[in-house]
Each structure stands twice: as C-alpha cells, then as structure tokens.
Write the structure tokens for this entry.
Amino acid sequence: MTYQSFINFLTSLETKNVKAIPFLNSCATTQIPNSFLVLFPEIIKFLHKHLNEFCHENEIIGIFGLQITAHNLKSNLPKQLNRIAYLHSPSEHFCCNLNFLVSNQKTIKAINNWHGYKSLIIDFTTGEIMNPEQYIYLLAFTDKAGKIYGKLSQKSL
C-alpha cells in the first residue's frame, strides 16, 4: 500500500480520540498489502478500548506509521493457520509496528515531527497486539516480558 492510501483510509476512520497524522517518509508501507486496511476499523476500536493505557485523560492518539518489523517471530502457526506471508520463509509471522503520538485535541494536527512516538506491534498471523517489550521478549532477545493487550478477531484475519 502507499503511505498516502494508508493515511487517507485512517482519516476516513478518525474519531474524537484517534486521528491520522501524515508524516511523509516516516515509515515504509509499500510491503504491506492494501488488504490489511480492512483490519483498521477493528484496530481503531481496540485503541479506544485501551485508550487509558496509552494516554492520559484529555489526550488523544495520532497514528502516523505502519511498517513491517525488522525481525519476525517464527513458529508453525503461519502454516497451521494458512497465513503464510513469506514463501521463502513460511514459518515467519507477518508483524508490523503501528506508530503513534499522544497529544491533546487542540495540538494533535499541528505536530510536525514524530519525536517521542509510541509503538504497538501487531502480529497479523496470530492477531496479537502487544507492546515492543513483549515482542522483543518473544524474539528471545530479552528475558523481561512485556504486555499483550489483546487480539484481533480471528474471523477478520
């Protein structure tokens, strides 16, 4: 998908508490199929459900980025679930960073850089949405677990 199609679609889904913020060249969306956009209404609902875990009262989320993670989880699940993303490595999960900023309603659209951004990792193979610490833990790069916030509906995946 192109970055502009990603931002345009997010803009169409904006709510009072979740906005789209366009930052050209902030991420690489070209390796993510357009078909993944259909999952974003559910992702936005998920963000609303967990809003108090990502920001304080009177703050909102401004999504600006989505890109494939640098390292992928590996298991038998992509084969078992018939969700093979990489033919050259069918055991790799398809995972992406969802990048966002937290700000107040009045200044969110005026932000012009992504300094201080936050990330969630979405494992599109399992549907799990987690913080980066949990993802690094699952990659076995650390022994400190993070947090899995929830899962996307298996029907939508």
